[in-house]
Amino acid sequence: MQSYKDLEVYRKAFKLFVETHTFSLELPKYELYELGSQLRRSADSIISNIVEGYGRRVYKADFIKFLVYSHASNLETINHLEKIQMLYPGLENKAKSLAREYDILGAQIFKFIEFVKRDWRT
User: Fold this and answer.
1) pTM here?
2) Residue 80 sits in a domain of what CATH number?
3) Which pLDDT tens digits describe the chain residue by residue (122 residues)?
4) Are 81 and 21 in contact (CB under 8 A)?
């Protein structure tokens, strides 16, 4: 492994971030800087914390800490998507689809955290 870009969780999170960012721009104008901004920031936080954790990977505890932050941001992103499903029926299907993908990502991040705890060599 030569880069954080080699991590499957990073690649999936980045792909979802791009999809989520584009989706957030479909919200009504008055939500672009409220719920839309929160959604974009939480989705970005997932990948940013993976990258920062990887940058600190020589300190196993730091790597784990940032992966936990990433997992928490993933849950926050799902929560924002659930709010969108309830508030904007026209966007419900896409929000549900994204939430399912983030649920899968959350499981992958959790498994990666467990791998790092158990097998990561600094």
Assistant:
1) 0.95
2) 1.20.1440.60
3) 789 999 999 999 999 999 999 999 999 999 999 999 999 999 999 999 999 999 999 999 999 999 999 999 999 999 999 999 999 999 999 999 999 999 999 999 999 999 999 998 87
4) no
Q: How far, CA to CA in Å, does 97 sit from each of 32, 91, 102, 107?
A: 20, 10, 9, 16
d(CA 65, CA 95) in angstroms, rounded, equals: 28
Alpha helices in 1-122 (DSSP H): 8-24, 35-55, 60-87, 92-119
Structure tokens at 101: 């993908």
Q: Locate tokens 């498994």: which residue?
A: 111
Instruction: Give the other-Cβ count within 10 Å of 12's Cβ.
Output: 18
> 26 Cβ partners below 8 Å, 6+ apart?
91, 94
Domain that holds residue 54: 4-119
